[in-house]
Amino acid sequence: MPELTSFGESLLRLATPPETPLETTDTLDVHVGGAEGNVAVAAQRLGIETTWVSKLPSTPLGKRVTSTYRSHGVSTAVQWDEGGRLGTYYLEPGSEPRGSNVVYDRGGASIRTATPDELPIDPIVNADALHVTGITPALSDTLASTTERLLSYARDNGTTTVFDVNYRSNLWDTKTAAETLGGLLPQVDVLFVALRDARQVLGYDQGPEAVARRVTDEYDLELAVVTQGEAGALAYDGEAVVEQSTIPTETVDAIGTGDAFVGGFLAAWLTNGTLETSLKWGVATAALKRTITGDLALVRPSQVERVLAEDPPKIDR
Amino acid sequence: MPELTSFGESLLRLATPPETPLETTDTLDVHVGGAEGNVAVAAQRLGIETTWVSKLPSTPLGKRVTSTYRSHGVSTAVQWDEGGRLGTYYLEPGSEPRGSNVVYDRGGASIRTATPDELPIDPIVNADALHVTGITPALSDTLASTTERLLSYARDNGTTTVFDVNYRSNLWDTKTAAETLGGLLPQVDVLFVALRDARQVLGYDQGPEAVARRVTDEYDLELAVVTQGEAGALAYDGEAVVEQSTIPTETVDAIGTGDAFVGGFLAAWLTNGTLETSLKWGVATAALKRTITGDLALVRPSQVERVLAEDPPKIDR
Amino acid sequence: MPELTSFGESLLRLATPPETPLETTDTLDVHVGGAEGNVAVAAQRLGIETTWVSKLPSTPLGKRVTSTYRSHGVSTAVQWDEGGRLGTYYLEPGSEPRGSNVVYDRGGASIRTATPDELPIDPIVNADALHVTGITPALSDTLASTTERLLSYARDNGTTTVFDVNYRSNLWDTKTAAETLGGLLPQVDVLFVALRDARQVLGYDQGPEAVARRVTDEYDLELAVVTQGEAGALAYDGEAVVEQSTIPTETVDAIGTGDAFVGGFLAAWLTNGTLETSLKWGVATAALKRTITGDLALVRPSQVERVLAEDPPKIDR
Amino acid sequence: MPELTSFGESLLRLATPPETPLETTDTLDVHVGGAEGNVAVAAQRLGIETTWVSKLPSTPLGKRVTSTYRSHGVSTAVQWDEGGRLGTYYLEPGSEPRGSNVVYDRGGASIRTATPDELPIDPIVNADALHVTGITPALSDTLASTTERLLSYARDNGTTTVFDVNYRSNLWDTKTAAETLGGLLPQVDVLFVALRDARQVLGYDQGPEAVARRVTDEYDLELAVVTQGEAGALAYDGEAVVEQSTIPTETVDAIGTGDAFVGGFLAAWLTNGTLETSLKWGVATAALKRTITGDLALVRPSQVERVLAEDPPKIDR
Amino acid sequence: MPELTSFGESLLRLATPPETPLETTDTLDVHVGGAEGNVAVAAQRLGIETTWVSKLPSTPLGKRVTSTYRSHGVSTAVQWDEGGRLGTYYLEPGSEPRGSNVVYDRGGASIRTATPDELPIDPIVNADALHVTGITPALSDTLASTTERLLSYARDNGTTTVFDVNYRSNLWDTKTAAETLGGLLPQVDVLFVALRDARQVLGYDQGPEAVARRVTDEYDLELAVVTQGEAGALAYDGEAVVEQSTIPTETVDAIGTGDAFVGGFLAAWLTNGTLETSLKWGVATAALKRTITGDLALVRPSQVERVLAEDPPKIDR
Amino acid sequence: MPELTSFGESLLRLATPPETPLETTDTLDVHVGGAEGNVAVAAQRLGIETTWVSKLPSTPLGKRVTSTYRSHGVSTAVQWDEGGRLGTYYLEPGSEPRGSNVVYDRGGASIRTATPDELPIDPIVNADALHVTGITPALSDTLASTTERLLSYARDNGTTTVFDVNYRSNLWDTKTAAETLGGLLPQVDVLFVALRDARQVLGYDQGPEAVARRVTDEYDLELAVVTQGEAGALAYDGEAVVEQSTIPTETVDAIGTGDAFVGGFLAAWLTNGTLETSLKWGVATAALKRTITGDLALVRPSQVERVLAEDPPKIDR
């Protein structure tokens, strides 16, 4: 079975019921979020052996994170920290036109001090692929340096490096992001990038296909996947360009959609799926994610297959 | 007041919250389901005196079933079983494209051993109408035989027999179903059948009106009602053919829609409603059911009337 | 900061979960409702200093009302009553075609005996504006008289009087309402009236603009705002007529929409907003209200601004 | 099977979670309470055919009451009222030293206008026993008169009359109560009275046994049961005096304990149980009630038997 | 009405259900805690006009704090901070021998940078009394200095200064605490100190009465109150020594007991209650607090009076 | 790190809220139970690497079981079954004298057909210890035979065999149990037996110490632990006899206490703890379990240490 390792920050997600503001809610629903863990869970549930690497505070909140991932089959390799805290985000989900509102409280997280020396390296150098995102280098200078080193270790050991740009304007500005990413992308084999990020951060002002071709050339990528939100996604592997539209959903919770896409894509691609199949698994997993509360794509392979079937049956009875 | 008796299996329905899979849910919502009980509750609430006949395990779970039906006014006539169990089904409701998922756990249910001798017969032979469905004979050979005997008793005593085909591919194949139903239909006065079942099980490949006419001729029916899901329903009483489209709904829970239709239809028809009125009450009850969680159509006559009114008012204040 | 005082009845709102009828629900969600308090909370949260004046039973339920309003920043000036009760309404929210159902239980409420002598007058005569609705004079003869006296006190002290017709057919018939309102309107400076009420109660059968002009002339108003539900609203200040359409919403709870509109409108208008801005704030607050459970518009100014922005961002991260 | 009919008021009980005051609770738990209905449910569940007679508002809240009783097997015979309301009480359960707090809101209830002519009389004159309490005549002059007439009807038709004094200082003073009860007790066969009420209302200042003997003599009773709260109960049937101590409990909800005692006692006594057995069933049912939230004694005969067993087993597995 | 102002940190309290660890809980209950706010709420509800002064992040979480206090009648005077965060603590309540477990996450809180210049001073210099605790100077050097300045301002303006030692070993060691408190106590008029803190921090090794006398002499106090947990409390005003034992409780939530004691004591003492009365109100409020979930003493004066009554009645009905 | 493997049945546990009977509950709380899984989770959380071996239906309910165990760090080695079902038990927790009531629904479970050939053997033959209980051979003849074979495999490969008698009268009678256990015990190294089971099943009528000595001699045990419920436990290793009393608890949920004892004992004993230490860890883990809802002992080593400390601190702050 192919193996995938991801490295990054996870946060406690504390959400109000959909119709209730933070000022008046009596309860908060507890979930665990974080792009890399989201990808790991989606991929594991869809058939890839995954390991999540990180640094966490040695508190019941930190254990909550590993407990959650383990319950979905993901292995965890964690450097436990006596001092730091677990990043948190508060979510007020809301229907339109109120929309969802997020209050971040992620300063001082343990992972911000993670160095390559203290992190478990085995799951990275032994995996078939390593997944990191642009969120991690944005969190601290230490993490920017650590991210570069881990990508480098992976490459040196034959592990395919997968990078999702995932620009976050709350964490850094486009100029700093561009500089840092410029240093990381030469270590990358497979790139996921939103068309919007390609424009704002990488400075590409073309259409999606041209962006995919250009970034592949510029960084000598094995594969580039350009996503456009509801307009679908496009993959280019140096030869073919394949496009895939999204699947209509009754959305319950949109957070984690992009990560579900990556997890579904990789689950197919790492088992030698074609670009077509991988894109389909990506959009199907993303669509299923949107029907589930929480950041995690708690889907089963049979559900992906049902979504992609020509004529999905109603309730089976 | 006209009287209706139904006979069949009820199950405990254990449902996750809509956004949560069975693997992670902390709670299950408890309801009682089962086609014949669903029909009984709908009809009773809409003005018919109904009795539900069955065999149940003599446990708090079995009592739960009668307690639920009684709370809605239905009388219960039950053979209590010391040994068997209560069939159960687990429901994961989900929005599209995930859809709802059902895990059946109905093996070994007490009713599967029910014989005509042990069941209370009075409520059947004294009623104006007896309602059974094709689910019951599918559950065991004993029940196939019992169903036939009860239909026969009813007929012999002047009770109108109502049969809803309700084919369930989880319980038997179309061939076995066709054979068994072939033996039962000659005892039937009023038939409800989905167009899909008419095709798959009865082997009729015509349109709905032709199906209604043909089945009426073939089995000398008093009335045939052919349903087509969202495409509405059609009734034929040997003279007139009446069609009725469905009513648009914001669906909360689709399970039990068909039974609500039958219950609403019978509530009107058994009080000498016309075919037009009966179909309207059927589709209105079905539409209302879809706005309520659980298998039961917890509707009031005033709500049916409001739905069927030309210009329903907003909140009355 | 401008000051607004409102006077009227508040009720305990006890609501079932959306999919559950009153006959079977195990829990009721507790909220506080009442048109004038709804307006006060919306205006206070959007930047106006507001005070709510009323008479309440001296019980934990009565204190619940002031506690709720105070938590949103509203000051409360209450005559405590040893004997009466708190009006209550039971709500069964439902999706279509079931719709929401309200069971009123508001007889014998303490406020029905409120006289001008016992009520706190300072917050009325010192405010910039006094808000009352047509619900209050409908509740009792005493209150009809009290309402007239309070409007008169306000006017005599330079407080702008704001009146929302809010006809309730459950409380009185159109003839009685027309007579009573005919006595009150000469004391009114700013009138809010639904087009439907203008027709049924005031007997105007023109279009909205003509109604606004006619009622302004007839009662020498400073400002008339005519609302038309989903068709938007229109304001006329003796010079200009300004129209505003509503904002599409995914509605969670429609109760209180009209009050949110008034609260949002007044928040802008009392801070010297133009008619255009005031109408925009009205419809934006109303739209936001519909995404929140409960009668109260628990919105923040930043949310109103987001709704009115040309290109509102997605989740900010 | 012996038959018992009870007549009286039922109320909606709306309770906060145990640790939360009414001013801040977000939810209320819904139950149905009322002494006579409590007795009916306890007796029915323990094997007596019972009917509850009353007058209720024709609203979903009124239906809630009959739905609840019917779910426990009790038959209901109700005069539906278009105009009145359902009495309500709010409960703040609390541990010591806070204690539980009740806010009554029972004015204007439909039953207060119930006359003998409009009530269903069959279930009263045909029963083996009729149960009423001193709460009912306290609610209105009409009900005082109605209670007397119903007791008289019962007696005239050979139905044993059972009366529980149940003095409520919130409803009337001891002097009025004494006068009214003085008129009713001559119609009574079986009397339940708390020692405290015997002292405060009936003016007996002796010990429990003397009270039982004196009241039996004075009103020519068939049976007198004197209860003393945690000190147990005592029965006198003109011959023997039998005493019974209470059973220790971990109390979850004390409301309804006395009614559970009466229901358990009558369940045994009406099936020809001895005084000893009847008292034991009374105290066991009362003890079990205290472990269940809500006014109703949702117990099973097997649980009563387990409580009264010499050496009750632990969990049976 | 006497006025009390308190100054200090408030935290978001996120608690699991009592039987569930943080690693597995699906929900957290939201409350607001913090010693000085707890005292303010208790005193306000018991009849003192109180104001709470602090610095909070300008987020919905910060607004939650003022919303909570305002709902209980407390005025809030807050410096809003654009940058910091709200301190949080996670609570796992547990019965014995597991006990309750707290995970603090209070680093980086906005209040840690609060200077006298930016805080609202009016509510401090105009109050009858100012309440601060030893937690505040422990949070940062800035706050140690600010605390001293506020005590000094208060004294200079005739406001009685009330100080509760409240030593927290998580925040500082006893040596640092002793030094800092040594600088603050000369500004204090009324001192609350746990006997344990008097020993560990102040270095007094006598019994409670001797401690009260010695600390009064040493710092020229107007009043010293020494608390001993379940062993009760003792007050010394330079003349009399009064002792008071605690009141037995069925404890639901012990957090905030000490603050409830101070709030109840001050509510009596600031209205010229005797030492005896003030101590009684302190222990009664503390006992009532323990029956309520959350840090706040949501009690009513009538409940304090009931607890202190000779023969408290059962449920009043 | 020492390794422990357990083999046995797990069940879905569906529990009502403590105060609500199965007939009326609206929700059920979902947990996973089963003696061997309970032991595995306790031991894993306290520091032993554990693996749970079983056969489960290939449904979301079956996955729920592995997901739960994995979330607590336990590895799972499962034979997935396409056909069977997951055993279930319904729990009505109740305080005294009602007590808790269990309704078993465990017939037809997948594990009942588990043969040695289809089960994963590696985790058994490679572990330091194998844990099985007397429940497993009671479930079916196949399992009795499988249990014997697995014990034999373990012994042959140097794995210490641990057996907990755990007699269940619902599953078999004492005579059959005695015969079957007589065939298994010669394969056992470490025996846990309740004194009551030693008497009823093994026929030993001595005191606990004599039982421990006799059973050790008779079956050539390495270690015998005799438990006596609240009276504590006793261990005999062929040399010393050590006794340990239980720790007082405020019990929330007693189910799983015995398994927590075994898990805690083994966690210490397998890391070379003395008999004294192992018994202490057993009783401490058992006491902590009783404060947590669910069958699992969700404890942390620090909590065990706190319980065993001389002077456990209050909340650490």
What are the defining features of this structure?
homohexamer, 317 residues, alpha/beta, UDP-N-acetylmuramoyl-L-alanine:D-glutamate ligase, nine-stranded mixed sheet, 11 helices, globular
Helices, strands, pairings?
The structure is a homohexamer of 317-residue chains.
Chain A: E1 3-7, E2 11-15, E3 27-33, H1 35-45, E4 49-57, H2 60-71, E5 75-81, E6 88-92, E7 101-105, H3 122-125, E8 129-133, H4 135-139, H5 141-156, E9 160-164, H6 174-184, E10 190-194, H7 195-200, H8 208-219, E11 223-227, E12 233-236, E13 241-244, H9 257-269, H10 275-289, H11 301-308
Parallel strand pairs in A: 1-4, 1-8, 2-6, 4-5, 8-9, 9-10, 10-11
Antiparallel strand pairs in A: 2-3, 6-7, 11-12, 12-13
Helix pairs in contact in A: 1-9, 9-10, 10-11
Describe this entry's structure for a reader:
The structure is a homohexamer of 317-residue chains. The first copy, chain A, is an alpha/beta fold. The first copy, chain A, has a single domain, classed as 3-Layer(aba) Sandwich (UDP-N-acetylmuramoyl-L-alanine:D-glutamate ligase). Chain A is 36% helix and 22% strand. The first copy, chain A, is built from 11 helices and 13 strands. In chain A, strands 5-4-1-8-9-10-11-12-13 form a 9-stranded mixed beta sheet, with helices on both faces. In chain A, strand 4, helix 2 and strand 5 form a beta-alpha-beta unit. In chain A, helix 1 packs across helix 9, helix 9 packs antiparallel against helix 10 and helix 10 packs across helix 11. The longest helix of chain A has 16 residues. The first copy, chain A, is globular. Chain A starts with a strand and ends in a 9-residue tail after the last helix. The model of chain A has no long low-confidence stretch (mean pLDDT 95). Chains in contact: A-B, A-C, A-E, A-F, B-C, B-D, B-F, C-D, C-E, D-E, D-F, E-F. Chains A and E meet through strand 3, helix 2, strand 6 and strand 7 of A and strand 3, helix 2, strand 6 and strand 7 of E. Strand 3 of chain A pairs antiparallel with strand 3 of chain E.
